[in-house]
Specification:
Number of strands: 17
Strand content: 15-25%
Distance between the termini: 11 Å
Order of helices and strands: HEEEEEHEEHEEEEHEHEEHHEEEHHH
Shape: globular
InterPro entries: PfkB_dom (IPR011611), Ribokinase-like (IPR029056)
Largest sheet: 8 strands, mixed
Number of helices: 10
Low-confidence stretches: none
GO molecular function, one term: heptose 7-phosphate kinase activity
GO cellular component, one term: cytosol
Radius of gyration: 20 Å
Pfam families: PfkB
Helix content: 25-40%
Mean pLDDT: 94
Protein name: Carbohydrate kinase PfkB domain-containing protein
């Protein structure tokens, strides 16, 4: 049984651990347009959308960073940004939440990864997302950038309590986490047993060794049973979750959406951490990153792995109630919700 009161007390009394967020970062750029302002282009005869405001956020690793800062952790950011306007805006977004982007690697010749999201106003005043415009470098990461990323990570480890590896992209070699960088991260985890190393990977979770890992149930099946077309059953999740922790040599977390999450550890039965039920509309964008922040904060505060799972579920339950934005949760909000389960 999970002692939610204990988790709440740890959140309230805990210090401010230093956590390195390493890997893929992007800029989330929201652009807002009203159909009433559409114009017809004289040159092309096509509709020219008139955008009158924008909102900028650090995404992917930046979303984890935002959540950790809201939870009062110190954050060192290690990733890539281009020598372009989006790179300036990404660095500025990280600084604005109080994170340290001085370890970021500037990459001339490669663009800052950017998700541009045009938002079109509806008759009721709400906005709907149009086709997203992505900016990404589609060439494999060169060895000199791999070396630079690993070197910055090594520098950022001094005095750190934990590292969260954010492995976002499914195409091999295009993001910060190439096979060579993953291998270096696994070696660093072995060399620094006093630091919590934790990886969240969409497509390569099975390649991590010596790290606590996290994926969702669909990602787990894509690793061990890619031909499976139906929704993951509890039996399959338990079977493959055990295989995953045997591969990595460390505990593994598998999230199950509205069903919460499961913790797997070698030689132990799986442990379920139920979700926190919420009412009303929800927006699940960023829920996984919020879970990551909660789990790793919990481990840094000395909670048991299953208690950290409960903390991760609690943080994400608060963020998904923030509609139209990638939400965050404060320690006060988290402790209050935990006490409803105590």
């Amino acid at each position: 049984m999970i002692d939610y009161g204990k988790v709440a007390r740890a959140v309230e009394a805990g210090g401010s651990p230093t956590i390195v967020v390493f890997g893929d970062y992007c800029l989330d750029k929201y652009l807002y347009t009203d159909p009433a302002n559409d114009e017809l282009s004289v040159e092309t005869g096509l509709v020219a959308y008139q955008f009158d405001r924008k909102a900028l956020f650090a995404g992917v690793g930046g979303t984890i960073t935002n959540n950790l800062r809201a939870l009062e952790a110190n954050v060192r950011c290690v990733g890539m940004l281009g020598r372009d306007g989006e790179g300036f805006e990404l660095r500025q977004a990280l600084e604005q939440v109080g994170a340290d982007p001085s370890y970021m690697v500037e990459t001339p010749g490669r663009c800052t990864y950017t998700y541009t999201k045009p938002m079109r106003k509806n008759p009721d005043g709400s906005y709907s997302e149009m086709n997203r415009l992505d900016f990404r470098s589609m060439e494999p990461l060169p060895p000199e950038l791999e070396d630079a990323l690993v070197a910055r990570l090594e520098q950022a480890l001094e005095g750190a309590d934990a590292v969260i590896v954010t492995d976002q992209f499914v195409e091999p070699g295009l993001g910060a986490l190439t096979d060579r960088v993953r291998e270096a991260v696994c070696n660093l985890a072995l060399e620094h047993p006093d630091i919590v190393f934790y990886a969240d990977s969409r497509a390569f979770v099975e390649k991590y060794r010596n790290l606590v890992v996290k994926c969702n149930d669909h990602e787990l099946l894509r690793v061990f049973d890619p031909a499976h077309e139906d929704s993951p059953t509890r039996e399959l999740v338990e079977q493959y979750g055990q295989q995953l922790t045997q591969l990595t040599g460390r505990p593994a977390y598998v999230t199950l959406g509205a069903a919460g999450s499961m913790l797997f550890a070698q030689g132990q039965p799986p442990v379920a951490a139920p979700a926190f039920q919420v009412e009303g509309p929800i927006d699940i964008v960023g829920a996984g990153d919020a879970t990551n922040a909660g789990i790793v904060l919990g481990l840094c505060l000395g909670l048991a792995p299953q208690e950290a799972a409960a903390l991760g579920n609690c943080v994400s339950s608060i963020t998904i109630q923030q509609i139209g934005r990638t939400g965050t949760a404060t320690r006060q909000q988290v402790a209050q919700r935990l006490r409803t389960r105590a």
